[in-house]
Amino acid sequence: MSMKSASTLASAALILVLLAGCGSAAKPGAIAIDGPEQAVALYKQSCIRCHGTDLKGRMGPETDLHDVGARLSEPEILRQIEQGGARMPAFGERLTAEEIAALSSWLSGLGKSE
Question: Is there a domain that residue 18 lies in?
C-alpha cells in the first residue's frame, strides 16, 4: 500500500469515527431543559446560542445559568435580558415584555436553595 493510499484510508477512518459520534449528540430542538414550556421555548429560540444546550454557557463562566438565580435577582435578570450588558446583546426590541418576564421568572429560580 502506498503512503498516499494509507493516508487517505486513515483520513477516511477518522471521518467515520467523528461522524459516528454525531448521532448521539443532543440537537438544539431535542434538548431537555426543565422549566415552564414558554420560557424553555424562548430559551431555545433566543438564548441557546450563547448559553448552550446545557445552560453552562459558551462564552465564559459568566454565561453559566445554572446558578443565575443565586447571583442575580429577578429584576436584575429582567434588566440584563432587556438592556443587555457586557458581552450580552439587548433583547428588549427582540422579545416582548411578557416573554422577557417569563424568562426572568424562570431563570431567577435557578440555583436558589430550596
Answer: no
CATH of the domain at 43: 1.10.760.10
Taking the whole predicted model, whether its pTM rises above 0.85 is answered as no
CB 57 within 8 A of CB 50: yes
Number of domains in the chain: 1
Query: Which amino acid is located at 62 in the chain?
Result: E
22 within some domain: no
Q: Give the tens place of pLDDT for each residue, 10-69.
A: 444 434 333 333 333 344 444 568 899 999 999 999 999 999 999 999 988 889 999 999
